[in-house]
## 1
Amino acid sequence: MSTPLLEVTDLAISFSHPRPAVRSVSVTVDRGEVVALVGESGSGKSMTARAIIGLLPDGARATGSVRLGGDELLGLGEKAYTAVRGRRVAMVFQEPQTALNPVRTIGWQIAEALRAHGGVRGKAARARAVELLTEVEIPDPEERLGWYPHQLSGGQKQRVVLALALANEPELLLADEPTTALDVTVQAEILALLRRIRDRTGTSILIITHNMGVVAHLADRVVVLRQGDVVEAAGTRELFAHPQHAYTRQLLAAVPRLPEADDGVRVLADAPAPTGEVAALEYDDVSVHYGSRMRGRVLPAVDGVTLRLERGQVLGLVGESGSGKTTLGRLAAGLVPLAGGRVRVGGEDLAGLRGRRRADLRRRLAFVHQDPEASLDPRFSIGEAIREPLDVHGVGSRAARDQRVAELLDAVRLPASFTKRRPRELSGGQRQRVALARALTLDPQLLVADEPTSALDVSVQAEVLELFADLQQRLGFACVFISHDLAVVNTVADHVAVLRAGKVVEHGAAARVFGDPAHEYTRRLLDAVPVPDPTVRDATGPALHEQREQIA
Amino acid sequence: MTHYLLRRLPSALVVLAVASFGIFAMVRMVPGDPVSTLAGPDATPEARAAIRADLGLDQPLLTQYVHWLGQLAHLDLGTSYRIGGQVKDLVADGAVNTIVLTLTALLLASLAALVCSVLAVVLDNRWVNAALSFGNTLAIALPTFVTGLVLILLFAVVLPVLPAGGTPPDGFIARPDIAAQYLLLPAVCLALGAGAALTRFLTEALRTEMRQPYVTTARALGISRRRIVLTQALRNALPSAVTVLGIQFGTLLGGAVLVEAIFTWPGLGGLIEEAISGRDYPLVQVLLLLSVTVFVVIQLLTDVVHAWLDPRIRIGGTGS
Amino acid sequence: MSESLLDVAAPEASDPDDQFDTRRRPGIWTALGRGKGLAGLILIGVVVALGLLAPLLAPHSPTEQIPGANLVGPSGAHWFGTDEVNRDILSRTLYGIRTDLLVVFLAVPIGAAIGILVGLVSSWWSFTDVIAQRVFDLVLAFPTLILAIALTAFVGPGLRTVFFVIVAVELPVFGRLTRTSVRTVREMPYVEAAHVIGAGSLWQLRRHVLPNSLEPLLVQLAVSMSVAVFIEGAMSFLGLGVRPPQPSLGSLIRDGVRNMYDAPYFAVGPLALVVALVLGLLLVSQALAEARRR
Amino acid sequence: ACSSAVKEASSGSEDSGPTDGGTLRIGSTNDIVPASIFTNSSDAANTLIGAVYDSLIDYPQDSLDPQPRLATSWEVAKDGLSITLQLRDDVTFHSGREFTSKDVEFSIKTWADPTWTVQLQRTAAAVTGFDTSDPHAITLSFDHPLSNIFDLLDMLPIIDSESFDQLKEGKAYVGTGPFVFTSWTPSSKLEFTRNDDYWGDEPHLDGIEVDIVSDPQAQVSQLRSGQLDLITGASNRDLETLGKDDSYTVTPFDGSVQQIYVGADLANPDLQDVKLRQAIAYALDRQRIVDDVFRGQGTPINLPWPDYSPAYDAKANETYAYDPDKAKELVSQLGSHPTIPLAYSAGNANYEAVAQIVQSDLEAVGIKTELQPVENSQFIKQLIGGTFGGLWILQHGYAHYTPSTLAVSAYPFNADKNASHFVDKQYKEDADAAWERVDGSDSGAVEIYQRLNKDLLDNLFLIEIALLHFTVASSDQVHDLGMSKRGELDLDAAYLSK
Ligand SMILES: Nc1ncnc2c1ncn2[C@@H]1O[C@H](COP(=O)(O)OP(=O)(O)OP(=O)(O)O)[C@@H](O)[C@H]1O
Ligand SMILES: Nc1ncnc2c1ncn2[C@@H]1O[C@H](COP(=O)(O)OP(=O)(O)OP(=O)(O)O)[C@@H](O)[C@H]1O
Ligand SMILES: [Mg+2]
Ligand SMILES: [Mg+2]
């Protein structure tokens, strides 16, 4: 091959603050090649992509060179760039939910994209739109043209975004985390689609992700970024097999994995034998309905679930979006009204208690929200936030409470100096630790953690998970651990329940469920998880393809 | 949609029902009464008693209320005590003037807001923004009674090119060119504050829209900023702008009281002042009830238009 | 308490993570220290200072009728001229500021305080909510000036009436706003977090909901204060405002307007002050609102 | 074709003698109130009555010497208990019906009906007999002599009985006058066209349009911008300014006057002491009020009468000349007294200014007052109920008619019941004596008026300030304006120059 399609050389991007967003990045993408840009959050992946398409945020200054098919793009005027965008380079963004205009129909948006480059209009545009929707495998394309984005599912929206990007047959497709917001099964379909598009049209793809599984699946070459610098660039297989840079190795090590079929199943009874002791948490045929009966629509968010969690054990709840995980978790904390059944915490029925006894029960129970930033009052200092449970229950003297705060910060490995900081002045991982410390303040016997690491980077996630496992073992609290990431649950949970549409489809020891799934749905979920190993890809690729067909 | 409307209707009706009684009772609690204003200082007690009986004011309050409701049900708004004539005619005459004035002002304000905010967002130029923002703040900060008088001084007295006030002698339809000239000053005066507020809102809404991911998507497709503003951002900002427009319409109706006084525009503002100061119960009641009704209807209307403009509410649900 | 916590692995110094924003968020107070906010504060400050220092600055008593000085134009002796009953307009203007300050800094906060209280109560107990909402609807259904005219029929013109009207107008505004912002904040996970650790309603309200609902209320306060200047002006203009001989900026403007042709200088001073005060309050509200949005 | 509303509203001017045609546009402050159309209470109503109706006789501006109008001649019986009037026989109503003596009877009876609350109701009611056997002559008889019978005949409009129901609703005003009422748009305007069958000289104007412009300032603006030709409500300061401008004419009318006064409610114990009232009378700088507030368009007075009135007494009119020292002395004799409320009708610039000057004048002599602007409707109620409880400021009229009319008709002077709670046997006797006489201006009458003057000056329940002239401003195209004693614009001879 002669010159590469895209040639980014010594790209540097800076804002007004001293640390540049991108220090020096060089990337090349050949025609028909899929290159992955990986690295932790804030390492400059998105900025690099935005620099290529000329959509840097206000106040950003870029230097270096971005050449597309030999033409320099950096420094191009807005008008000239408008002609390049969509036509030669197109981009797909992370959030399909918001990437489409909510008040215009799909058809209108595609037509608008075509119109932008003086292309086809009217009937021809409509025909082209149908063609595009067919290409991204949307059923009934004709009819869908008149639909609004909110009438589509997340995966369908992402397909439409992809169709928009492909409308003017660009040479290069930039995809910034195109699947992070999607369920694993949907993610698998989109990845397969991307690959097929590349195969069919020869479009080059620069994909940005922090998911090593996605990389292993899709990319021909990988470029690893760290704090604005390229630390390593290599062919995918090579990189996974022989990571050169320490950071790459760290990154790969931090990726949580599912047990391989040949890992050897850990010996743990499926259903924990009733020990005779009082269970930490018991769901007894519980159901939850949202929406009022008056207005006709009743949604069974949880439907006849029976589960039991022994003291000191961790129960993982997995399942796709909307399957009822959060609802079950909130149920344990008494935050959702029950439609049927019973929830017992430490043998006592939360709903049946009042006053003093209810407060006592509450003290034994803790809840960690999914988004640590939102669950910390922005006005409270870290110290105040951790101390609040003690203040509420009037535990100990002021000095004793401060002492306890110091202990807890210590326990989650944060320096004592953080007591005075506000949540905004902490990183995501640090905030997650504070949330954990706060949950542990009253020495709970049951902890409900709702997606406690979903907002975190893989490497930070690994640290927090390690800390969590450590504390759980030392303090011996029982825990309901909710996550859509099967691999994450695998690292912390003793038992797992797989939810689907409010029902438990399978439950048992984690190693057994993940290693040897009994239910067909569990198997499908597991299969959809991209394995962070490029060697597996060649084997599973076609399988994924077939699987998509089954689901669609 | 109908479902949506039906959900809002009962509370609107409750407001109206409560308002009708509240207004009826309040009007009668005001010190001073129509009889003394009507009879004047020199009337004998017998004359006053005769007038009182004539007006039916010697009846118990509840009887009067029920009687009034009965009248309303037959769309009979009663007879004005002071001005004489049917309340219906009086209100209709005033309402036409007020509505023409208010709607013109609303139109001017909306147009100005549309042009200014689109210019600000499309040009995105520091100086344009500064100038617009300055003019905007000033327009909000200048009291209506001041701008009104300045306008009269400038355009009717110093440079006598426009009428200083009053309604067009031949009505609004016969001579639209003349009517427009009579309307211009009061409408501009009334529109100024609302226009500035609308501009501010719309500019901010457009800027917010322009930060939305779908705009980035569109830009990445090579659609120009100007086109995005005009065909996409504006369309997205519309539903909430309609709500604000509804609120502004209410404000305009209130402001009309003052503007009508300044420009001697014989609308509802003057009528209500006259009715209250004359304790003209039938007229006051109807005017106040009208005020509430207009408010309630505007709220309903903006809700409905909002819903209609937003396909997420209009169509609702997930299709897949 | 668990001692076991103490022997958890020694705290390793946390990674010096410099990715997050260590700068304190520029609080909404800092917004007042620069740009628009500062300009607004200066404008308000000047007007307030003029009002407070009126006894020192004013050459005459605001009600003194100076013999022979009938409608004298601006001069060394009377910077703003004199009015139709021989009073020094400058002195009246300076004292007039005080009336407006009273309206701005007393009537509005009183209305706001009652409104916030009602809003809080109604957002917490749903049965009061229904009543409060309907009452708010009703008050809001009347344009301010119509409300003013109606209220004046009850209590007669005067500063008291201006007070009543402002309180009546601001009460539902703040009630509504409090209700919505409380309802928004109440849905925030950190309030739920407090609920989960066993904090009662009052605790949640006092410690989390109220402090976090305050910012929009503050912005509204500045807006309402500027509106109050308008209401005073418009009511005085319609003859419903303060009672003579007490001066207020609004009544001075009205007097000036009455003399529009023969003494055009009359209204200039009071007008400039009204515009300065309203502008100042508006700028402050804009600065606060922008800071909040950031 | 687009044309300018301003250009259409005004046309160039050059006076070349009376010309026919054109519509005179008049700015009026208050709209008519059909229920009180006869009470002289609004400038629009006055214009309507003046344009549409004729009276039986006319007083000239500056005397009480009756002149023929619909009545050509008259004779008062020696005993003063009846009057016979000869009526014109060439007069028709706008409806085409002939005017007869029955219409006179109907009109007087209408005025005697208390629901119309006209000021001269007592006088009209005192007419007890009607001889209408001759359609073109009428004899009215009374129970007691009526010294002010000509006042009634001057003020009373001859109304059409057939359209009376429509009159009540404000739908039709049918008279015999120079202009025909065509329409009324409440709170907006009244329109009239020329009466082509007028019995007198046909008016020059094609018509009249009365625009209701409640804000005096707006009236001036509209006069200046050429939308109005004549305004009746301009403030005195604006009149002064307009008078200096060649393009406008300011016309003061001598005949129709009003008196501004300070009333004292004797129910207030502090005000019961006549010394305090005297102190107030001495403390008022009336000339300043006339100069500063009314811009010289008035005369300071102690007694209500204009100089041609038979009750006029130049010396008595100076009794309480401005003398703050005397006032102070009187106040010091009184000892301490609390602050006295001083009410006036809110929203009226003149009252407001006068009230402030009065307050300042009183304060200068040690009398503290508190201003109370009272909404007009309540003001009237307080006036009727006599519930001011202090001082008040208001205007009254009727002093330019036969003096007895004031005492029996003007509410503040009513000897039976008045807002001052002033009840005095002597005053009542004198008032009745003045009324129940044959002649209102002979020497015997003058003697009674002197007694009345003494009653007024000694008791001071009303402290007169100034006598004010009715003044209008018009563009220089308007010529030959007139004004009746009743305060009605007389447009019979008026014309607009092109
Ligand atoms: N608008 C902005 N103003 C200032 N700094 C910015 C802005 N946008 C991004 N940055 C900075 O640029 C750096 C690179 O950001 P970028 O979005 O490229 O990271 P990323 O690798 O895409 O991370 P993520 O995985 O979280 O999306 C970050 O440190 C960030 O703080
Ligand atoms: N407050 C609510 N009102 C109405 N429906 C709700 C509400 N909360 C959740 N639901 C519905 O209940 C179902 C289960 O929701 P839940 O939040 O428990 O799912 P989840 O498994 O946690 O999903 P995710 O992975 O997206 O967090 C979904 O269909 C959701 O739409
Ligand atoms: Mg990114
Ligand atoms: Mg969830």
Note: Chain B touches chain A through 29 residues (CB under 8 Å).
## 2
Amino acid sequence: MDFNLTEDRQMLADTLTRFLGEKYPVEHRIKVAYEAPYHDPALWDQLVELGVLYALAPEEAGGMGGSGFDISVVFEALGKALCPEPVLGALMSSRILAAAGADQEALLTGATKYAVGITEIDAPYELDQIATVATAKGDGFTLSGRKSTVYGGQVADVVLVAAKHGDGLAVFAVNVNDVNVTGYGMMDGGGAAEVLLDDTLATLVLADAAAALKDAVNAGIVALCAEAVGAMDVTHATTVDYLKQRKQFGIPIGKFQVLQHRAVDMLTEIEQARSITIKAAAELGGVDASRYASMAKNMIGRAARLVAEESIQMHGGIAMTWEYAVSHYAKRLIMLDAQLGDTDYHLSQVMKGYAA
Amino acid sequence: MDFNLTEDRQMLADTLTRFLGEKYPVEHRIKVAYEAPYHDPALWDQLVELGVLYALAPEEAGGMGGSGFDISVVFEALGKALCPEPVLGALMSSRILAAAGADQEALLTGATKYAVGITEIDAPYELDQIATVATAKGDGFTLSGRKSTVYGGQVADVVLVAAKHGDGLAVFAVNVNDVNVTGYGMMDGGGAAEVLLDDTLATLVLADAAAALKDAVNAGIVALCAEAVGAMDVTHATTVDYLKQRKQFGIPIGKFQVLQHRAVDMLTEIEQARSITIKAAAELGGVDASRYASMAKNMIGRAARLVAEESIQMHGGIAMTWEYAVSHYAKRLIMLDAQLGDTDYHLSQVMKGYAA
Amino acid sequence: MDLRYSKEDLAFRDEVRAFLAEHLPEEISSAVRSGGELTKATMEDWHAILNTRGWLATIWPKEFGGPGWSPVQKHIFEEECCRAYAPRIVPFGLNMLGPVLIKFGSKEQQDHYLPRILDGTDWWCQGYSEPGAGSDLASLKTRAERDGDEWVINGQKTWTTLGQHADWIFCLCRTDPDVKQQAGISFILVDMATPGIEVRPIKLIEGGHEVNEVFFTDVRVPIGNLVGEENKGWTIAKFLLTHERTGIAGVGFSMQALEEVKAIARKTMRGGKPLIEDPLFAARIAQAEIDLEAMKITNLRMLFKAQEQGAPGPETSLLKIKGTVINQELKDLARRALGPAAAPFPGHVSEGNLMFGPADTEHNAGRYFNNRKTSIFGGSNEIQRNIVTKTMLEL
Amino acid sequence: MDLRYSKEDLAFRDEVRAFLAEHLPEEISSAVRSGGELTKATMEDWHAILNTRGWLATIWPKEFGGPGWSPVQKHIFEEECCRAYAPRIVPFGLNMLGPVLIKFGSKEQQDHYLPRILDGTDWWCQGYSEPGAGSDLASLKTRAERDGDEWVINGQKTWTTLGQHADWIFCLCRTDPDVKQQAGISFILVDMATPGIEVRPIKLIEGGHEVNEVFFTDVRVPIGNLVGEENKGWTIAKFLLTHERTGIAGVGFSMQALEEVKAIARKTMRGGKPLIEDPLFAARIAQAEIDLEAMKITNLRMLFKAQEQGAPGPETSLLKIKGTVINQELKDLARRALGPAAAPFPGHVSEGNLMFGPADTEHNAGRYFNNRKTSIFGGSNEIQRNIVTKTMLEL
């Protein structure tokens, strides 16, 4: 048993945190996250240069990491800085490409930006409800359907699309030049796209892709949970700091016992969220990966809502303003619940085992 | 719109509260509620003399009340005093007898004690799962099955039993001398009985009794909710009083803001519980009676748990003791959730309307 | 005990309902329904429609142009307006300054300002909060110094709602810096066109512009703009804080929100079925609906008490606390029901370019975030709990 | 980062598991499983079995008869004991007084008392709390006055767990009434057979007898029964409060409780189906299970930190707070799952007279009520939050 990071991972965490702290102050984040292209292309290049994408892929796929803990280290640092760069799509694509045994050098070097198209408006979280369908055409395939909130899709070069293929699911690569892509910014910053597939030409990446998709989703969940933990840490620290500085009726509001206890309860939930994220990271790739990913995403959903809402409330008006960083942390914490399965969806997944 | 009680009801409330306050101090309650026969026969007689049972029955059945507000006035007073007398069984029986057009003088005069046998161990809350079955035999009927937690059954003369009869439900009267009745005391004081029916002779009271049973249950729910409101009022007041008196670190613990705010939150939920109980009482007998009864029982279940648990916690050790009245109020508040449908059951009933 | 409206009240309800059906323009109610920000023109148009009917200054006495309604009638009017998705009446002139002038203003002030509020000549805003003085008004710092026939005002106000539209602002200013706390504060009316006033927008969490900072640099207003006595502004502030809190539970708005949640949950698919058939989500709705049904009665109970006793009691703090919690929960459910469809920034994706979920839900996430304010402003829920602690629990 | 036990730890776990399988008598584990009160004999028998193996004084150093385990080994041992439904070790002699004597006691005291704790000669209880001094030990009033070679003790202790079985009690007494607060308190050992001691049972909410009041009237004990320095008892009290808190999250007991909830929910019928198939109830279980899974890791993280740093930090307060909340929630679920079947008073209805639900659940409601104590004693959750506020948030 050892809860210390390996030296390599600790170094990655430190480097990334320092880098983002220096190059990416929150004012800059707020600026770039809400204006097209909804991220900072220069920063993206620098993150790639730092080796962030290599850290997310295993050696056999050309990377230098790829375990649950590699993922959580990277995303916790991204979460602390509220970074809207399209790393999630790269991570999930990388895992699918690895499962397919496909070359991913273009992804890892940042030469090609990948996004994943899984979510549909009527199947926001459930792989088995995907309606997008693949049809064989000549040597290749065409896809029809609609993929929603493709994160990073507003700047992607290639979208890996999950579609029905025969009795199962397969993954196809779609070049954004061949398809109707509408990019947009999001409530919590960063960008996504609607991808309208209408007999769109596509290349088969992986047939029988259900397991690989589930693994990519689980990896994405570990990433989102770690991102949330990083964002919650900053939000909580900022709130406690504010409690020390802000005075009301002549004394720092941090002297009010009600706010103290609520700050403690937030801390408790953050530590619990950190724990279950560690567990999900440890189990990623194993037989219980989905179970623990569901547990983690459920707990993160609850903790993140508590932290977001309580931080705003305990700040009073100031955290309701665009200028104050906490408002953006709060938005991210709330909105990530709807990525890759929300609180209730994942609770239901955990419950499924009980009836047996 | 008028939220004042009528003069008659106000008088009944005052009389009953004064009577119970004088004749039935909490020490006495604790004594009689946990020792066979798990109530105070002398007190029962006095309650009957005061006209409590008449207040629960409408004029056409020989009573002098019987509306939702009559019921809530009586049970709120009983709840304040934590009274374990078997009034609930009398109320529900009275409504069934009234629906059957049967004479109920013996019930109203207290000459015969009635209890209702609806609950079964595998059908604790759902009328449509009742397994007890009636078989015609000669001019009469026999019943087979098992009725559980028949409240007041430990001292009843007659049990009105709900049983399957043909395609529907019917109610039969069973004389306790004809049947295996095991009485016992309950965790929260008061008594109940297991009633084992094994080809037991029974008299048909009402065929096609589903509607009458539902009405009796709804009336019982109004009663339980009002009882809980009365008990919550006392529990909250006792707790606030304790906060004023008990000192820690040299100051009254009521000066700690955390306890203040929690006491306010309890008060808020109690007022909400009172409101929904008023609504359920107003709707009793009408087309929406079941809907509002379910709403009330759900909210009472949540509020009562909060009040019970917070009162114990805010008292510290003292409310964990048998000697201190709050422990008994807390037990009653918790245990009444399992009477006539618990929090989740009634939430589900409210949800049923949504799918349509 | 009788929860029903009287025959007269029912007749009044029908009258209001008929009026709204006939006179509330469809473009106004759809703007309200969509949940975006209303334009100044929309709000003014609606005020004018109500004013024509004599129903604009709902809480003013008849002799000043109010309809002379009982608390129950006011409640019914608000309920029906919510039901019809009418805009809220902008409260600063009508529900705040109006009653203040009626109680504390001079005859000249009443004669001059009240008609201009009614006919929409003057749009008022409120100058109470300051940076560093939120729930704690007594510590406010904006100074008004007397210089001959004028007040010279210096300082800063914040959270000035709809100040960007305002012609006038009523301010609490410190007129005697040497006395403590609440003493030494005066209530002064200021024309926003006076030199030295600068209004800066505050962008809110969801990107909207509804509040502002207002800066005062040597702003000179006539002595006669003082309302009530000099240094007695606190009396007016207190009057306003306890006045007219019957609508504070926001029941009508929560009923709108509940209706919306159900509508979204019927349209949204999860696991191949409408979300409303998902037991976990349905349970969340049901719990909120039960809380709201209870709140309806709690609200009526307080209203009845106010009507009987002539003034609302400290129980209104309970309405504020629970009312905002219920409303915020419902806004959370709407956002939660939409799932990823709530993600786009409002205006980015709409029926015009790409159909993305129900188009009338584009403001949903924004409204969830914006509504977090309701438990903060007007005395935060923490302040309300402090009030109940002192007044009702006597701790 | 590695969440797995080392090979050595796994081997140790297997050893413990095998020992329990062989030596934990079935009648003892069923008594634990049933949830009723254990008899003194049962607890003593189990202590003796562990002592034979050298596993009784799990936190004593080897030289005093402890097994010399690492924090992880102690954790594994506790985990396995819970898994096997072994009784908890009665902590007063073994986990409280033992470490105190080892750190603060004289050689004579160690030589005399420690072996008697191990072999069960002396059953100890704790004399800390007093009426009026619960979480606030500094205000305690029980006086010990020196009279020649004796202490003369007068006062009252309360919440003395299992005091009805005790041969000895260790007490905090005020030995200098003139100094403030924590100063002037001493730690004194008292033979319960001394004249002037009276033990009165306190009946608890569910009807059980596990705590007592202990009254001292001119109780005379030898001067040599003082542990450590006179007037420095507070140092010992603090040592005990922060010592050995690794098991404080109660994870093993919550795992038992979770297993029980699931078992009940599989047996209980609702709407014609097992309760565990009811989505609302299953959701309640799932949420508690997730919290517990997280708590397992939080617990291990704190354990790892304690092992690395040699002492548990203030984070253990978080374990206490959340650990008790989870455990209490699970006890609530068990009672809730039983529904009306939880109503009878324990002992009133059992398989002997009438089958009433699963017979092994008769203590369920009682345990729910009894367990409310866990968030009150040992420093209430409110006190724990105050501690975290000061130490971790520095507010």
Note: The longest strand of chain A covers residues 191-206.
